[in-house]
Design a protein that fits this description.
By secondary structure, this protein is of the alpha+beta class. The protein is built from 8 helices and 10 strands. 45% of the residues lie in helices and 26% in strands. The longest helix has 44 residues, at 260-303.
Length: 315
């Protein structure tokens, strides 16, 4: 009698725990933010959470009893996923397209997990869906941004290089190859950017690298640059720091402009100015000499009692 009473109490306790566990699972199902559903082995949806109803734009009651393939335009996709799930026990992050109530096709990632009974018989499987629209938008925006960057680099009249925090070049534009007289990217990739600067300017370059790390950028710093054959050319370098998603320094991007023509033009201008200045001095000197001679002639004429020939210039 005592034993039966104990069994009854244990049974009641287990019933309570089972009921509480059932309520707990229901609560999880109710408030789960991830679209989920439970499918039987022949593809009929037996249950679905609110997130699934929200994603499909269909009442939960209308989803239950429908077939999963009803929401997938490409039937072969869901057939393949169902077969893989029942065979292997799960599927992870397969990308497919679903169709919502408004006939809007939405890219999603689907994952599945098979459910078995005590005898290891498959009784159904769970599915979870991840809406990929936002990710696709971000990926599209990223691709467009990368294409814009590549276009800017390709069309820039200045050389563009990207280097890591140690100064090793990770990318060089076509114009960079031309300035260095390199035949391929491989000639510059991995090379330290300081090797492209004349030895006497490298200390200045190292200090400016620290300035970029502190300030974020530098503009129009003049260096003497080296080509692959050791010849030199004057250039102006501007650089900025690239940060990662957490705001930490990740790399440097720099533009280099060959200012040889500007230097030559400036030199020619100085030489022309010097010539003009010399000519001016000669012309002024000649004029002063003429005045001096005219004054001497006038003085001589006055001594002879004659009228001065030249108009006297003020001194």
């Amino acid at each position: 009698m005592h034993s039966n009473q104990k069994k009854e109490e244990l049974y009641d306790l287990l019933e309570v725990e089972a009921s509480e566990l059932e309520d707990y699972i229901k609560d999880l199902w109710e408030f789960n933010p991830i679209p989920m559903a439970y499918i039987n082995p022949i593809g009929i949806i037996m249950d679905a959470d609110k997130s699934m109803a929200s994603l499909l734009g269909i009442d939960r009651e209308d989803i239950i009893g429908s077939r999963l393939e009803d929401y997938v335009p490409e039937k072969k996709d869901i057939t393949s996923i169902a077969q893989e799930t029942l065979t292997n026990g799960l599927v992870k992050n397969k990308e497919i397209t679903i169709k919502t109530k408004k006939n809007q096709e939405t890219p999603i990632n689907i994952s599945t997990l098979v459910r078995k009974d005590a005898e290891e018989n498959v009784v159904g499987y769970f599915i979870s869906l991840t809406d990929m629209c936002e990710r696709k938008r971000v990926e599209t925006a990223l691709r467009e941004s990368e294409e814009l960057y590549k276009t800017l680099v390709r069309t820039s009249p200045d050389a563009v290089t990207v280097s890591d925090l140690e100064g090793r070049i990770t990318h060089a534009s076509q114009r960079s190859l031309e300035l260095y007289n390199a035949k391929s990217q491989e000639e510059l990739t991995g090379k330290n950017a300081f090797e492209l600067i004349a030895p006497e300017d490298r200390e200045k370059a190292a200090l400016n690298m620290q300035r970029v790390l502190k300030k974020g950028f530098i503009r129009n710093v003049e260096y003497s640059f080296l080509r692959s054959d050791g010849s030199r050319y004057p250039g102006e370098l501007s650089a900025a720091m690239i940060k990662d998603s957490s705001g930490k320094p990740k790399a440097f991007i720099a533009t280099t402009r060959d200012i040889s023509e500007r230097k030559e033009a400036g030199k020619a201008l100085k030489e022309k100015y010097a010539e003009l200045e010399e000519f001016h001095d000669l012309a002024v000197g000649r004029e002063l000499k003429m005045i001096e001679l005219e004054n001497e002639v006038n003085a001589l004429l006055i001594e002879l009692g004659r009228k001065p020939k030249y108009k006297e210039e003020p001194s």
